[in-house]
Amino acid sequence: MNLQHVIQSQQFSVPNLMELFGRTRQMETIVRRGGTRDYDDKIMASLFYKPSTRTRFSFESAMYRLGGKVLSTESAKSFSSAIEGEQLEDTIRIIANYCDVIVLRHNEEGGAQRAAAVSPVPIINAGDGGGGQHPTLALLDLYTIYNECKTLDGLSVAMIGALDTGRTVRSLAYLLSKFERVKLYFLAPPEMQIKQDIINHLQEHDVSFQLESDPSEIIPKVDVVYQTRIDRERLQGKEVDLSQYNINPDMLKRMKSDAIIMHPLPRSVEIDPVVDRDPRAAYFRQSQNGLFVRMALLTMLFDKE
Amino acid sequence: MNLQHVIQSQQFSVPNLMELFGRTRQMETIVRRGGTRDYDDKIMASLFYKPSTRTRFSFESAMYRLGGKVLSTESAKSFSSAIEGEQLEDTIRIIANYCDVIVLRHNEEGGAQRAAAVSPVPIINAGDGGGGQHPTLALLDLYTIYNECKTLDGLSVAMIGALDTGRTVRSLAYLLSKFERVKLYFLAPPEMQIKQDIINHLQEHDVSFQLESDPSEIIPKVDVVYQTRIDRERLQGKEVDLSQYNINPDMLKRMKSDAIIMHPLPRSVEIDPVVDRDPRAAYFRQSQNGLFVRMALLTMLFDKE
Amino acid sequence: MNLQHVIQSQQFSVPNLMELFGRTRQMETIVRRGGTRDYDDKIMASLFYKPSTRTRFSFESAMYRLGGKVLSTESAKSFSSAIEGEQLEDTIRIIANYCDVIVLRHNEEGGAQRAAAVSPVPIINAGDGGGGQHPTLALLDLYTIYNECKTLDGLSVAMIGALDTGRTVRSLAYLLSKFERVKLYFLAPPEMQIKQDIINHLQEHDVSFQLESDPSEIIPKVDVVYQTRIDRERLQGKEVDLSQYNINPDMLKRMKSDAIIMHPLPRSVEIDPVVDRDPRAAYFRQSQNGLFVRMALLTMLFDKE
């Protein structure tokens, strides 16, 4: 696979994903053995216009485990002459002189695409704008399902939360639609249901899906519960019992014994801490997979050069 | 010694301290020879919720001199979703996936203990809250006395400054109370004297001590003068001559010829810059010891794994 | 050459500059081959009181390409006890314990000189105050002219923009005055012309120069066009056509075929993006030279130890 930039999750075909996941699995082994020095001449620049300590650390740890080095800015928006109207394109052209790959979290939708258009080194999109893409998150989510369920075909996946604004569920729905006999359940208060563009996409691709506001009958059927946060303030004045969307011991009892629970983290009240001790709680493994997937992506970008 | 986390200075017994100081001395040699690569597969995360450039650089330099790598956030409080109410415990669980040790400076007292309770990798407390612990500071202070005076038994130590709020003097008093025939002098305006909890602790451990507001008769007797800052504004409206607490050429003349002067730095007016040239001025050597002590602690955490 | 600190561009004699540029050229080769590990026991501290992501990344990348390690603070002014009145001198004495070289961007003019006066490790001035020095910028500018034009003697150089406040043009004028038969043209609205101190310097050194507000007749004569930004707001209420100072296809046509266009970047409207495609546009090569010049300076500081 000739991987030049990582801009959006949709750019990956099923064979691409399988190559990525094969490499990801190798990275688990490499990390367990203490990392490699194979890429010790490589420099990664973390160019974060908006701060995100966890995402940044995950990328930088990936680079370190590969033997490489890291240039880092936590909050370029507050710290650079970006405020003086410097163009992203010029910044990228300059910073590309100092590194071998740029991990970009930009504050505007489409920022990563603009950067890739001028950059002589690979760009990895680490989130661009509120409504934009964050492809490595979607890829680590998909890898987690693949790794835990041993397949991506024929799965039933429930997504819970504020689905209209949830970037992770939207991206995951797109990615899952590439696989066979997937069944998606969107569980949310009607005000927060998944948007029409996703519904259209699923219909075009003949993906089976169902919209529900009551999770109780769906939960026992699914292989994956993908839980996200619900912003309580958005429902002010409405009589909605949000606790029905929480994962607690009662909901655990109704889940399949081999189902898994995912969450992009950080969580708020929507997952009871007692759930952490259940082997089906996959969300901390999921966050660890971020390291392996990002290592795999970096090697795919470097090896092709 | 089986060292799992470094949370508070009191956790170290006298034999533990001696093992630490033995390693610390080895680190001086290693640094003089250009460092080691023995730990080049290790990653340290500097997770500073409150900024402290000097403390952070000291830890990160220690890790680099050992051959390791560093993930770093200068001000996680302003930069992360911490502001959205993310739990410290979840943050630690996630970041532990990306590193082999976490150096945590948290803004709340007890933060390091909470982190250690859930972390699969060692936590080093780099300060938690204003009234909390900062054990590596206390350890480097104690090592400095040990290294300069060649013993910790039988010493007379004067502590000067705002002793009621001074974290460093409080911790050092605790640590010194573990040694034989130590005599402590607390020199401060009455409004700023050492608090009752320390007095109780010293009495319980039969440590000889004395509280004084006038340093003049004490200074000629002591082996160590531990100087700290006095916040002038706290004494507004009071007629106190704070200059009597300053270290200046006049006070130098009255000190023992083999005494040492320490200060946690940064200093304000309480040490005259001309004192810097006196061989008894140990405060810059003290700050350098921070590097060696932190290197030693890191090796103790890594070697036991 | 015995290089101890890099504080101001004037400290370099012509033979010093030639040694630096010889090393700079070697660094280009080293980077093309993936860098070196010769300095992998060295630690550089980036101590930026004012943020500048591009300058910082350039220095840090230089250190990494040499095999070294980096301590970094993006904005020490907002992050450290500097705000409590800590003295720069004490900060430098302490941080020098943790590293082998300090790259300092201070907010006050003369900060780098003060740091060098007390520092046991080399200080590199990465900009001190608005009116202060930024010697590595001037050196990379001069190297770019040398590298592109194959000589520094006998060149005609036009500088355009707000020349009174422009640090880069002032420094470059000083450096160019060291070479033979150089001719300088200062092209700016009269309100923004180069200041008298530079004029005096050029007269004392018998350097040929000319002040003009209309660039049209000068541009066809010069080997180098050094373009800088004009702050439009400074000319409010005045009837000045600033577009005459912009570099656009029309001005390109009037330039010599082997002239080069330089700019310290970031640019605003003063260089039309279509100019980027012209081979005479040297500003991105210029920014890349920053990496090589900084690598060369670091090796000169390290090798002499």
Report on the architecture of this protein.
Chain A is of the alpha/beta class and 305 residues long. Chain A folds into two domains: 9-134 and 290-303, Rossmann fold; 135-286, Rossmann fold (3-Layer(aba) Sandwich). In chain A, 37% of the residues lie in helices and 15% in strands. Chain A has helices at residues 14-32, 53-65, 76-79, 88-95, 111-118, 135-149, 167-176, 196-204, 249-254, 283-303, and strands at 43-48, 69-73, 101-106, 123-128, 156-160, 183-187, 208-212, 224-227, 260-262. In chain A, strands 7-6-5-8-9 form a five-stranded parallel sheet. A four-stranded parallel sheet of chain A has the order 2-1-3-4, with helices on both faces. In chain A, strand 3, helix 5 and strand 4 (123-128) form a beta-alpha-beta unit. The radius of gyration of chain A is 20 Å and the shape is globular. The termini of chain A are close together. The mean pLDDT of chain A is 93. Chains in contact: A-B, A-C, B-C. Chain A binds chain C through residues 41, 43, 45, 47, 69, 71-76, 78-81, 84-87, 90-91, 93-95, 97-99, and chain C through 34-35, 51-54, 56-58, 60-61, 64-65, 72, 74-75, 265-268, 284, 287-288, 290-291.
